[in-house]
Amino acid sequence: MPEKFAFRMNLNPGQAAEYKRRHDEIWPELAALLRGAGISDYSIWLDEETHHLFAILTRADDHGMEALPANAVVRRWWDAMADIMETLPDNAPVQVPLAKMFHLQ
């Protein structure tokens, strides 16, 4: 059964419009890669007070998310986004997994 997966990232102050612009123009090859890894219904929300980005997605039972960091397209995306958000030394976004506390269906 598909599961919801949520995590938090940190946007640099003053970069909300640029972050949205870049995602409005997401590379087709990146979108295809995410779908191919079993990811669907993926959205990212911004808390404008804290600059926290809240992401939630649905992933298939047989998802391939663990392989994404090694993909050249993902690496290029991370490099392209590194100037506007908190990243690790390899430009991967700092991601904090979130624990589900409640769900109303």
Automatic annotation (TrEMBL):
Which residues bind substrate per the record? 19, 42, 77-78
Which Gene Ontology terms cover its molecular function? L-rhamnose mutarotase activity
Its subunit composition reads:
Homodimer.
Q: What does this protein do?
A: Involved in the anomeric conversion of L-rhamnose.
Compartments (UniProt record): Cytoplasm
List the keywords (alphabetical). Carbohydrate metabolism, Cytoplasm, Isomerase, Rhamnose metabolism
Keyword Nucleotide-binding appears in the UniProt entry: no
Q: What is this protein called?
A: L-rhamnose mutarotase
Name the protein family.
Answer: Belongs to the rhamnose mutarotase family.
Coiled-coil-forming residues are none
Cite the source lineage.
Bacteria, Pseudomonadati, Pseudomonadota, Alphaproteobacteria, Hyphomicrobiales
Provide the top EC class. isomerase
